[in-house]
């Protein structure tokens, strides 16, 4: 299985800040990486796929980068609705795996 | 619009069985791979199982292999998860998720609202 290390696990920030979340793979996965946002009591929602492609309807303040083993999710100019938990996920090979999650909280 | 509605969750004793269903609408169900993903209370996401668009290929997480069976009925636009020999550690919200493609190498572009399975005596 491909192991994923997502960091940080907790991130405190303020509205208007720029934040970055990292995801590192135990082996190369090309660009087969997705990012999801989950709010309490809700199902996850797709933000980014193929490492850097924004899902339709997702605000442009979200962006993704990376390939191989190192990936980044960046949120520029945080809005109040962005405070949530974020997960990376590889779909390069089965078993699919998720990062441990990053909870983004208001400072 | 795409809708995925899970049902069948509940409380079951250790060693028991449960079958989850996921009713799909708003897209051509028979053209897409489908997945089950679960989330234990207060924990992260765990992929559980995948079935190819035509049911020809299935994959499972090691934690459920030999106990869970994924299946689909394309005539009813419904995905299933048969769960046997349930353990306390299977307690979770179970989500069905639509693959973005017919086979593997696809992310999850739509998710259901989830159904809670509690394994407890």
In short:
The complex is a heterodimer of chains A (107) and B (121). Chain A has 107 residues and is mainly β.
Defining traits:
heterodimer; A: 107 residues; mainly beta; 7-stranded mixed β-sheet; 4-stranded antiparallel β-sheet; 11 strands; B: 121 residues; globular
Produce the secondary structure layout.
The complex is a heterodimer of chains A (107) and B (121).
Chain A: E1 4-7, E2 10-13, E3 19-25, E4 33-38, E5 45-49, E6 53-54, E7 62-67, E8 70-75, E9 85-90, E10 97-98, E11 102-106
Parallel strand pairs in A: 2-11
Antiparallel strand pairs in A: 1-3, 3-8, 4-5, 4-9, 5-6, 7-8, 9-10, 9-11
Chain B: E1 3-7, E2 10-12, E3 18-25, E4 34-39, E5 45-51, E6 58-60, E7 68-73, E8 78-83, E9 92-99, E10 108-111, E11 115-119
Parallel strand pairs in B: 2-11
Antiparallel strand pairs in B: 1-3, 3-8, 4-5, 4-9, 5-6, 7-8, 9-10, 9-11
Describe this structure in words.
The complex is a heterodimer of chains A (107) and B (121). Chain A has strands at 4-7, 10-13, 19-25, 33-38, 45-49, 53-54, 62-67, 70-75, 85-90, 97-98, 102-106. Chain A is built from no helices and eleven strands. With 107 residues, chain A is mainly beta. The mean pLDDT of chain A is 97. With 121 residues, chain B is mainly beta. Chain B contains no helices and eleven strands. In chain B, strands 2, 4, 5, 6, 9, 10 and 11 form a seven-stranded mixed sheet that branches. Chain B has a four-stranded antiparallel sheet with strand order 1-3-8-7, with no helix packed on it. In chain B, strand 4 (34-39) and strand 5 form a beta hairpin. Chain B starts with a strand and ends with a strand. The relative contact order of chain B is 0.31. The mean pLDDT of chain B is 97. Chain A binds chain B through residues 1, 32, 34, 36, 38, 42-46, 49, 55, 87, 89, 91-92, 94-101, and chain B through 35, 44-47, 50, 59-62, 95, 100, 104-114.
